[in-house]
Amino acid sequence: MTDLFQFDKDREASSAAKVRALEALLIEKGVLGSDSVDAVLQHFETMAGPFNGAKIVARAWVDPDYKKRLVADTPKAIAELDLPVGMTGAEGEHMAAVANDEDVHNLIICTLCSCYPWPVLGLPPYWYKDPVFRARGVREPRAVLREFGITVPETKEVKVWDSSAQIRWFVVPERPANTEGFSEEQLASLVTPESMMGVALVAAPAP
Ligand code: FE
Q1: 115 catalytic, yes or no?
Q2: Could you give the CA distance from residue 33 to residue 24 in angstroms, rounded to a whole number?
Q3: pLDDT in tens, 92-113
């Protein structure tokens, strides 16, 4: 996927080093307080992140009526749960859930840029912004999904949802096998951000 956009192999480490240098400089120059950096980090560690999405998915798995409400009116259904405040804050406006089932697999992209439901998924991974992923996700979603390790059977429809400033999608993946009797907390621990983007399935735990 990165043939046209040769990312350096040390991209993550080198980006982190650049950010640290920039942060140090901005603090030294008095542009930024170190407490404001901490506040942003803490926000994404405790308030906005995939841990919220995982709780929503787990509730949808144990309560079919909740799942229906979640798909019908996502913000209203999210408000039913005891989640951090700010679920409708930055990048949380107009969130909408789509549910995978035996007939449909859903994939989320943003063809224009990188619109993403921050409160329930956190910040998007860098490849979500990759122009090749954004273009191919629409043109040949099955091929892209195969590269992520999912072969969707031909009998199953693949739906691609284009997030934008007007609507930010996330996926309710299918509940895996071997989870009968699991608590909501145990179920939530299985849910990955990738599964809520539609590029992964939730793996079944060992029986
Ligand atoms: Fe966008």
Answers
A1: yes
A2: 10
A3: 778 999 999 999 999 999 999 9
Query: 63-92 pLDDT, tens per residue?
Result: 999 999 999 999 999 999 988 876 767 777
Could you confirm whether 34 is annotated as catalytic?
A: no
Residues 118 and 92 sit within 8 Å (Cβ to Cβ):
yes
Cα separation of 120 and 124, whole Å?
Answer: 11
Could you tell me if residue 72 is left (phi over 0), alpha (psi between -120 and 50 degrees) or otherwise beta? Answer: alpha
Nearest-5° Cα angle at 10, 6 to 16: 115
Sequence letter at residue 135: A
Asked about 110 being catalytic, the answer comes back as yes
Ligand 1 centroid from CA 37, angstroms: 24
Q: How close is the Cα of 176 to the center of ligand 1, in Å? A: 30
How many angstroms is it from 117 CA to the middle of ligand 1? 10
Q: Give 110-120 pLDDT, tens digit per residue.
A: 999 999 999 99
Q: Taking the model in full, what pTM does it have?
A: 0.89
From the candidates 15, 113, 164, 189, which is the catalytic residue?
113
CA of 5 to the centre of ligand 1 (A): 19
Q: Which residues lie near ion ligand 1 (Cβ < 5 Å)? A: 110, 112-115
List the single range of 31-40, 143-152, 180-189 with lowest mean pLDDT: 31-40
Domain topology for 49-207:
Nitrile Hydratase; Chain A (3.90.330)
